[in-house]
Amino acid sequence: MAKCEGCGPGYRTPLDAMKGAQEEIVYVPCIYRNTGIEKPDYLATVDVLPGSLTYCQVIHRLPVPNLRDELHHSGWNACSSCFGDSSRKRDKLILPALISSRIYVVDVGTAPRAPTIHKIVEPTELFWKCNLANPHTSHCLATGEVMISTMGDPAGNGKGGFVLLDGDSFEVTGCWNQPGEEAPFGYDFWYQPRHNVMISTEWGAPKALANGFKPADVEAGHYGRHIHVWDWSSRTRIQSLDLGEEGAIPLEIQFLHNPDATEGFVGCALHSNVFRFYKTQKGDWDAEKVISVPSKKVEGWVLPEMPGLITDILISLDDRFLYFSNWLHGDIRQYDITDSRNPRLVGQVFLGGSILNDRPVKVLEDKELQSQPAPCVVKGKRVQGGPQMIQLSLDGKRLYVTTSLYSGWDKQFYPDLVKEGSVMLQIHVDTQTGGLRLNESFLLDFGQEPGGPVLAHEVRYPGGDCSSDIWV
Q1: Which biological processes are named by the entry's GO terms (predicted)?
Q2: Rounded to an integer, what distance in angstroms lies between the CA atom of residue 34 and that of residue 37?
Q3: How high is the pLDDT of residue 210?
């Protein structure tokens, strides 16, 4: 591996990344599956540079050549884990399709404002070489390879394994994990090589969640509640931490960005709790609940109690603030995690949700709010759905928000979101003492797209961000 001082992709440290250039464009997957519109998903390029003539507009659309892929999360071919390698460039966006199991490799280096498809990895490659399917999270490795977590096997059963792509040809080279070491379910992961560890999470069996959520599937064991600890060098699963009912459906997970850190956080959707995981004095790993969002007693909804449904979390690059979205309650929260065992709520903003004061749902008991929040209207547009995917600017001052979770669940919980399309919003962040404030002049209405209303998901910056770069 060619070594140098500061000529590879990304940044030397997380704090150096905070001094990086302001984002000018972002990439956003847009999904048509389950909307009734028979068109391919596409990758939208959005101008987010204030003062630009096309500010807050989609400036390019890259359709994929297939229907009903369900583009979801994306990652990079190279990031800060390859910082010392002068042969590597961050010029390909890795874009797995959650339902079809395709992987699109998108060239964003040749023309960043007009990406093109570089390669398509067909599902049969994952099926035949790894017996895995439903790819989710992509992370680049210091070796130059790309690693992608999976949620299932080709039959739709839960199976948490990891696919490796060659960093040059993007061919599937096999599984990262040793044979037979797969977890019962899969979803997200984060690795920390200085401690020879990776930790992964669980959503559920793809065949159970593909077209909607059924509470009975939780009781039947089709959804996960464990986080899994992996030995990074031997590629074996060495611990599975049962988070219990309070930790059901652990989704997004992050270590602190400091590569020396031995702790991080995971958002558990079903009962809206955040767990801190950490290395113990004995050298193994454990987890403890540190944040709990109380459910609300309601009438006029599918269940008598409504959870917040924590669906996305992220940590600022200085490891000072934790952010997460409550997709059902409709708020985004900011916590000071300077004392990681005792996070302190310092910012909150409501951006829609299911408990608005003009909706059929009536809140009977609320342990946090005195009244039901008002609808969120930005530039005359009422926000449908609730805040879901979040992405923070490198300097920590701007938080981008989109409102689609996953088309099958969008259709079930927020049918108006599917009819009208999702939105992208921007939140001003107080990085001194904490605080969140909606930018009233920023709105990207994906309901006005040329092909019809579309569901916009995760946000990525060409130069890396708070949830894709890992330092080694």
Answers
A1: protein transport
A2: 8
A3: 86
